[in-house]
Design goal:
By secondary structure, the chain is of the alpha/beta class. It has 20 helices and 14 strands. Helices cover 46% and strands 17% of the residues. Helix 2 crosses helix 8.
Amino acid sequence: MGALIRMGMKDYARILRRSWLMIVVAALIGVIAAWTVTSTRTSQYAATSAAFVSSDRSGTLAELTQGNAFTEGRVSTYAKLASEPIVTQPVIDDFDLGVTPQQFADKLTVTIPVDTTMIEITVQDASPSVAANLANAVMTSLQTTVAEIETSTTPVTTPGAAPAQAAPPVKITQVRFAEKPTSPVSPNLLLNLAIGLFAGIALGALAGIIRDMVDVRIRTLDEFEGLTPIPVVGVVPQRSKGRPGVVDWTPNDPGDAFDESFRILRTNLQFLDVDGPATFIVTSPRSGDGKSTVLANLAVAIAANGSRVLVVDADLRRPQVHDQFGIEGGAGLTDILIGRAELADVVQPWRSERLHVLASGRVPPNPSELLGSAHMHEFMQQVQNTYEVVLYDCAPVLPVPDAAILSRHVGGVLLVTSIDRSRRDQVRGALRALERVHARISGIVVNRLTARGAMSYLAEPYQSHQERTIPAEPTDSQQAPAESTPG
C-alpha cells in the first residue's frame, strides 16, 4: 500500500502506457463474460399493483385526524403482512405454484411510496402474464386477510339475537391493477455490459500496477528517460543474428540502424559539455548489459571520423575488449601498471593507425588497488596527451568499485543499460554510486532496443536528439566542426 501511495501521476501514466494491451484484453474479457452471463439467465418480468389504505372513520375533525394517524401506523404493518404465509399461501394454492411461502416471498417486493398511505406490490416471474396475475392476486389476498383480522364482533343488545359483525376500521382499496409487462426488468444487458467493461478495465489496470511493482525491469525507452534527469545520449538497437560484434565501416558507408545509432552517439558526445579531456569510462550497472560491445563500436565510429582513439580494457576482472576486436589479450594494461612493459610495447592498432586497442593483460589478484594506484593515474595522464579520445572499458558499477575509482580522472562516464534486463533499482543504485564519488555522468546509453523502437528513435529529426541529450548549449569556444572529435 505504501508503494501505491508513493507513486505519482507520471508513474501511473507510464504503467498504463506499458499495460494498455493487458487493459484492453481485460476489458474485452469483462464484456464477453457479462454478455455470457446475461444470455444464459432467464428473463424476468415485473408487474405492479397498488392499493390505497384509508380509515373508515368520519365525523369531527379530531376523529378524522385520529383516523389518519391510525391508518399511517397500519400501512407499514400491512406492507410486512403482504409477504407472510397468511397472505401468500392462498395465492400459491390457487395458482398451483408448487413453491414454499418463503420462495414465493422472494419474488415479491412490497413498497410504501413516500408521504402516502399506499401500498405497491411487485411480482417478478419469467412469464409476463403470470407476473401480472400474481400481483393482483396477492393484493386481493391482502385485502381479504386485513378485513378478516381487523373485523371485530360487537356485543349482543337484543335477547336471542345473533352477534353483529362490526365494519373494519381500515380498508384497502386497489387503485391500480397490474398489467402484463412488455419488456423484462432483468437481466439488463446494457447495464451488465457496462459493468463488465469497467470491471475489466479496473482489473487490467490493477494487474498492470501489480506487475510493475513485481517486475522492476525497464522495458521502454520512456521508462529510462523518466527514471533520472541524466540524459539518454544513445539508443542502440538489437543486433541481427549472425552480424559481427564490432562493425568495420567507413564514414561514407550508410550502414543500417545499428551503425546509425553509433553515429548519433558519437555526435551527441561531441556536443556534451565535457569538463576536461575527451576521456570516457564506459560501464554498466551489472554484467551482461553489452558495455564492451557498445564501447568497441563507438570507438570504431569515432575513429572513422578521423580522430585518434585509444580503447583501454580497464575491466581487470572479466576482460572482453580483446575478444571484441579479435586481438591478443595476454599482455596489456596490467603489464604497464606493474612496470613490465611500456605502452608502445603492448598497444595494438586495429584496421588503421587511428584506432589503437590496449588489452587488459593477465587478470591480477588486486584489480581495485592497481586501478587506484599512482601508476594508473600517470598512465591516464600519458594517454590523454597522446590520443584525442580515450575510452575505458570498466567493470560494472554495483559489484565492484573499479568504475568509481577511475571516474575521478576522466572527462565523463557513460552508463550502458539494457532494455528488458536492467532493473530500475540497479540503474538508480549505479547512478548514486557514481554521484557519491562526484563522477561526471555524461549520459545513459540504452542497449538492445527493439528494432521498431530503435527505428522510431532514429527517425526523429536530428535537432530533437540534440534537445534530448545536450544539457546546455555549447559556447563558441566549445563549438567544433561538425562530426569532429567528441568532447
